[in-house]
Write a structure and sequence with these properties.
The chain has about 230 residues and is α/β, with parallel strands linked by helices. It folds into two domains: about 170 residues, Acetylglutamate kinase-like (Carbamate kinase, 3-Layer(aba) Sandwich); about 50 residues, no CATH class. The protein is built from ten helices and eight strands. A six-stranded mixed β-sheet has the order 3-4-2-1-5-8, sandwiched between helices. Strands 6-7 form a two-stranded antiparallel ribbon. It is globular.
Length: about 230
Protein backbone atom coordinates (compact mmCIF):
# COMPACT_ATOMS: atom_id res chain seq x y z
CA UNK A 1 0.00 0.00 0.00
CA UNK A 2 1.38 3.40 -0.94
CA UNK A 3 1.72 6.15 1.62
CA UNK A 4 0.09 9.55 1.26
CA UNK A 5 3.31 11.33 0.29
CA UNK A 6 4.70 8.89 -2.29
CA UNK A 7 2.83 10.41 -5.24
CA UNK A 8 3.65 14.01 -4.37
CA UNK A 9 5.98 15.58 -6.93
CA UNK A 10 8.60 18.01 -5.63
CA UNK A 11 7.72 21.61 -6.55
CA UNK A 12 11.29 22.05 -7.80
CA UNK A 13 10.82 19.19 -10.26
CA UNK A 14 7.31 20.22 -11.27
CA UNK A 15 8.21 23.89 -11.86
CA UNK A 16 8.25 25.12 -15.42
CA UNK A 17 10.17 28.30 -14.63
CA UNK A 18 12.62 28.66 -11.74
CA UNK A 19 14.43 31.65 -10.26
CA UNK A 20 17.63 30.78 -8.39
CA UNK A 21 19.25 33.41 -6.18
CA UNK A 22 22.84 32.92 -5.00
CA UNK A 23 24.49 34.97 -2.26
CA UNK A 24 27.93 36.57 -2.16
CA UNK A 25 29.13 34.37 0.68
CA UNK A 26 28.81 31.31 -1.54
CA UNK A 27 30.39 32.89 -4.61
CA UNK A 28 33.29 34.85 -3.15
CA UNK A 29 35.98 33.85 -0.66
CA UNK A 30 35.57 36.08 2.38
CA UNK A 31 39.33 36.22 3.06
CA UNK A 32 40.72 36.59 -0.46
CA UNK A 33 37.84 38.31 -2.27
CA UNK A 34 38.24 35.89 -5.18
CA UNK A 35 35.61 33.77 -6.90
CA UNK A 36 35.07 30.31 -5.48
CA UNK A 37 35.50 28.59 -8.85
CA UNK A 38 34.85 25.06 -7.62
CA UNK A 39 31.55 26.07 -6.03
CA UNK A 40 30.56 28.15 -9.05
CA UNK A 41 31.27 25.17 -11.32
CA UNK A 42 28.96 23.00 -9.22
CA UNK A 43 26.24 25.67 -9.37
CA UNK A 44 26.50 25.81 -13.16
CA UNK A 45 26.20 22.01 -13.29
CA UNK A 46 22.97 22.22 -11.28
CA UNK A 47 21.59 24.94 -13.56
CA UNK A 48 22.40 22.82 -16.59
CA UNK A 49 20.54 19.86 -15.09
CA UNK A 50 17.45 22.02 -14.62
CA UNK A 51 17.63 23.15 -18.23
CA UNK A 52 18.15 19.57 -19.41
CA UNK A 53 14.78 18.72 -17.81
CA UNK A 54 13.20 21.37 -20.00
CA UNK A 55 12.89 23.95 -17.24
CA UNK A 56 13.52 27.65 -17.78
CA UNK A 57 16.05 29.14 -15.37
CA UNK A 58 16.74 32.71 -14.26
CA UNK A 59 19.72 33.37 -12.02
CA UNK A 60 19.84 36.26 -9.55
CA UNK A 61 23.47 36.61 -8.55
CA UNK A 62 25.18 38.61 -5.85
CA UNK A 63 28.95 39.01 -5.71
CA UNK A 64 29.76 42.04 -7.84
CA UNK A 65 30.61 44.38 -4.97
CA UNK A 66 32.55 41.68 -3.13
CA UNK A 67 34.66 41.02 -6.24
CA UNK A 68 35.12 44.67 -7.14
CA UNK A 69 36.25 45.87 -3.73
CA UNK A 70 39.24 43.55 -3.86
CA UNK A 71 40.23 44.76 -7.32
CA UNK A 72 40.02 48.37 -6.15
CA UNK A 73 41.86 47.70 -2.91
CA UNK A 74 39.01 48.94 -0.73
CA UNK A 75 39.41 48.24 2.98
CA UNK A 76 37.24 45.77 4.85
CA UNK A 77 34.14 47.12 6.55
CA UNK A 78 31.11 49.11 5.49
CA UNK A 79 31.55 50.95 2.20
CA UNK A 80 30.21 54.39 1.37
CA UNK A 81 27.55 54.42 -1.35
CA UNK A 82 29.98 55.78 -3.96
CA UNK A 83 32.53 53.10 -3.04
CA UNK A 84 29.90 50.38 -3.36
CA UNK A 85 28.91 51.72 -6.77
CA UNK A 86 32.53 51.79 -7.93
CA UNK A 87 33.10 48.25 -6.65
CA UNK A 88 29.94 47.06 -8.41
CA UNK A 89 31.06 48.58 -11.71
CA UNK A 90 34.34 46.64 -11.55
CA UNK A 91 32.89 43.43 -10.13
CA UNK A 92 30.00 43.14 -12.60
CA UNK A 93 32.43 42.60 -15.47
CA UNK A 94 34.27 39.83 -13.66
CA UNK A 95 31.08 38.15 -12.53
CA UNK A 96 29.47 38.24 -15.97
CA UNK A 97 32.67 36.92 -17.57
CA UNK A 98 32.78 33.97 -15.15
CA UNK A 99 29.20 32.96 -15.94
CA UNK A 100 29.75 33.43 -19.68
CA UNK A 101 32.85 31.24 -19.69
CA UNK A 102 31.38 28.40 -17.63
CA UNK A 103 27.96 28.29 -19.27
CA UNK A 104 29.34 29.02 -22.72
CA UNK A 105 31.35 25.81 -22.57
CA UNK A 106 28.02 23.99 -22.67
CA UNK A 107 26.51 26.08 -25.45
CA UNK A 108 24.36 28.21 -23.18
CA UNK A 109 24.01 31.90 -24.01
CA UNK A 110 24.23 34.15 -20.94
CA UNK A 111 22.43 37.49 -20.76
CA UNK A 112 23.20 40.10 -18.13
CA UNK A 113 20.24 42.09 -16.81
CA UNK A 114 20.75 44.89 -14.29
CA UNK A 115 17.66 46.15 -12.46
CA UNK A 116 16.83 48.88 -9.98
CA UNK A 117 13.87 49.01 -7.60
CA UNK A 118 12.12 51.44 -9.95
CA UNK A 119 12.12 48.74 -12.64
CA UNK A 120 9.67 46.75 -10.54
CA UNK A 121 7.77 49.72 -9.07
CA UNK A 122 7.00 51.77 -12.20
CA UNK A 123 4.54 49.92 -14.42
CA UNK A 124 6.04 50.72 -17.83
CA UNK A 125 9.54 49.81 -16.72
CA UNK A 126 8.16 46.66 -15.08
CA UNK A 127 6.46 45.65 -18.32
CA UNK A 128 9.61 46.38 -20.33
CA UNK A 129 11.76 44.30 -18.00
CA UNK A 130 9.26 41.45 -18.04
CA UNK A 131 9.11 41.49 -21.84
CA UNK A 132 12.90 41.36 -22.01
CA UNK A 133 13.03 38.34 -19.70
CA UNK A 134 10.32 36.59 -21.73
CA UNK A 135 12.23 37.18 -24.96
CA UNK A 136 15.52 35.95 -23.50
CA UNK A 137 13.93 32.77 -22.19
CA UNK A 138 12.09 32.14 -25.45
CA UNK A 139 15.42 32.46 -27.29
CA UNK A 140 17.05 29.92 -24.99
CA UNK A 141 19.28 32.33 -23.06
CA UNK A 142 19.93 32.17 -19.33
CA UNK A 143 19.37 35.61 -17.76
CA UNK A 144 21.78 36.52 -14.97
CA UNK A 145 20.29 39.36 -12.92
CA UNK A 146 21.76 41.68 -10.35
CA UNK A 147 20.84 45.02 -8.88
CA UNK A 148 22.23 47.93 -10.87
CA UNK A 149 24.30 49.17 -7.94
CA UNK A 150 26.23 51.66 -10.06
CA UNK A 151 23.17 53.92 -10.40
CA UNK A 152 20.90 52.92 -7.50
CA UNK A 153 20.87 55.30 -4.55
CA UNK A 154 20.22 54.31 -0.95
CA UNK A 155 16.59 55.36 -1.35
CA UNK A 156 15.84 53.24 -4.43
CA UNK A 157 17.80 50.08 -3.73
CA UNK A 158 16.36 46.62 -3.23
CA UNK A 159 18.70 46.35 -0.25
CA UNK A 160 19.56 42.69 -0.74
CA UNK A 161 19.21 40.18 -3.52
CA UNK A 162 16.69 38.05 -1.63
CA UNK A 163 14.20 40.83 -2.19
CA UNK A 164 15.37 41.25 -5.76
CA UNK A 165 14.94 37.52 -6.34
CA UNK A 166 11.36 37.70 -5.06
CA UNK A 167 10.54 40.61 -7.36
CA UNK A 168 12.09 38.84 -10.34
CA UNK A 169 10.11 35.68 -9.56
CA UNK A 170 6.90 37.71 -9.53
CA UNK A 171 7.87 39.61 -12.66
CA UNK A 172 8.74 36.46 -14.60
CA UNK A 173 5.77 34.43 -13.35
CA UNK A 174 8.11 31.82 -11.90
CA UNK A 175 6.72 28.66 -10.32
CA UNK A 176 9.58 28.33 -7.87
CA UNK A 177 12.07 30.63 -6.14
CA UNK A 178 15.20 29.06 -4.62
CA UNK A 179 17.42 31.11 -2.29
CA UNK A 180 20.96 29.74 -1.95
CA UNK A 181 22.80 31.07 1.09
CA UNK A 182 25.44 30.17 3.65
CA UNK A 183 22.55 30.02 6.17
CA UNK A 184 20.97 26.55 6.21
CA UNK A 185 17.43 27.90 6.44
CA UNK A 186 15.04 29.48 8.92
CA UNK A 187 15.85 29.04 12.61
CA UNK A 188 14.13 30.05 15.82
CA UNK A 189 17.16 32.28 16.47
CA UNK A 190 20.48 33.15 14.85
CA UNK A 191 22.35 29.78 14.85
CA UNK A 192 25.70 31.57 14.75
CA UNK A 193 24.95 33.22 18.08
CA UNK A 194 22.58 30.81 19.79
CA UNK A 195 23.59 27.12 19.88
CA UNK A 196 20.06 26.19 20.98
CA UNK A 197 18.49 27.62 17.82
CA UNK A 198 16.18 25.09 16.18
CA UNK A 199 15.80 24.61 12.44
CA UNK A 200 12.28 25.17 11.06
CA UNK A 201 11.94 22.65 8.27
CA UNK A 202 8.76 23.89 6.63
CA UNK A 203 6.74 27.12 6.71
CA UNK A 204 3.18 26.86 5.43
CA UNK A 205 2.03 30.27 6.69
CA UNK A 206 3.78 33.42 7.94
CA UNK A 207 2.38 33.56 11.46
CA UNK A 208 3.44 35.93 14.28
CA UNK A 209 5.56 33.11 15.71
CA UNK A 210 7.35 32.66 12.40
CA UNK A 211 7.93 36.41 12.13
CA UNK A 212 9.34 36.40 15.65
CA UNK A 213 11.67 33.55 14.69
CA UNK A 214 12.86 35.62 11.75
CA UNK A 215 13.81 38.50 14.04
CA UNK A 216 14.81 41.92 12.73
CA UNK A 217 17.67 40.89 10.46
CA UNK A 218 17.81 39.59 6.91
CA UNK A 219 16.09 36.35 7.87
CA UNK A 220 12.86 38.26 8.50
CA UNK A 221 13.02 40.05 5.17
CA UNK A 222 13.54 36.66 3.54
CA UNK A 223 10.33 35.15 4.94
CA UNK A 224 7.74 36.46 2.47
CA UNK A 225 9.94 35.59 -0.48
CA UNK A 226 10.65 31.87 -0.09
CA UNK A 227 8.27 29.74 -2.05
CA UNK A 228 7.90 26.92 -4.52
CA UNK A 229 4.63 26.47 -6.29
CA UNK A 230 1.67 28.72 -6.69
Amino acid sequence: MSTAGENVVSPLIAARRIVVKVGSALLVHQDTGQLRHEWLTSLVADLLRLRARGQQVILVSSGAIALGRRELGLAAGVLRLDESQAAAAVGQIRLAHAYKELLGEHGVTVAQVLLTLEDSEQRQRYLNARATLESLLALGALPVINENDTVATAEIRYGDNDRLGARVAQMAGADCLVLLSDVEGLFTADPNRNPEARFIERVTAVTPDIEAAGGQDRRRRRLPHVHCGR
